[in-house]
Amino acid sequence: MAFLVAALLALGLLSGTVAHIPPAVSLVAAALVSAWLLVFALRERRPHRRDH
Fold first, then answer.
1. Which stretches are transmembrane (predicted)?
2. Which terminus of the chain is less hemmed in, N or C, by CB atoms within 10 Å?
């Protein structure tokens, strides 16, 4: 997952919208997306409780 985020960031730095903003902003955005994906992955791996 981290490799995918890094690859997308590298691609964005070479071309796209990310090329028009400062690298520091791009890194912060990448860190936020990575944190969101990590939280999502951890929540999905956790067993779900069913209250009946």
1. 25-42
2. C
- Pairwise CA distance, residues 20 & 25, whole Å: 10
Quote the pTM value.
0.57
Please state the separation of Cα 16 from the chain's center in Å.
Answer: 17
Q: What are the phi and psi torsion angles at 35 (to 5°)?
A: -65, -40
Structure tokens at 26: 């791009």
19 within 8 A of 12, measured Cβ to Cβ: yes
Three-state DSSP state, 34: helix
Contact between 23 and 13 under an 8 Å Cβ cutoff? The reply is yes
